[in-house]
Amino acid sequence: MSVKVLIPTPLQKFTKDQATIECSASNIQELIDALEANCPGIKARLCDEAGVPRRFLNFYVNSEDIRFLDNTATPLSDGDEVSIVPAVAGG
């Protein structure tokens, strides 16, 4: 099962400057682990020491925020698109 992952610019140094990565995973947690296997060091930027996604990063599956789904247990299907979006603050 192939999932398309959209990587934000600040994290592309881990993906050899690729904005899109294809991974195989059945849920978000497996996807994070697959990203780490393919792009060493990226998991530390995505997750805290407990393995939980960092608060300032948002994960979307087909434009749906995983916080309103099943968080890291959110299932993935072939052809899904996962976006990793850094939170933006300002005023």
TrEMBL record:
Q: Which organism is it from?
A: Cyanobacterium aponinum (strain PCC 10605)
Identify the Gene3D superfamilies for this entry. Answer: 3.10.20.30
InterPro entries (alphabetical): Beta-grasp_dom_sf, Mopterin_synth/thiamin_S_b, Sulfur_Carrier/Prot_Modifier, ThiS/MoaD-like
Instruction: Please identify the protein, giving its name as recorded.
Output: Molybdopterin synthase subunit MoaD
One Pfam family linked to the record: ThiS
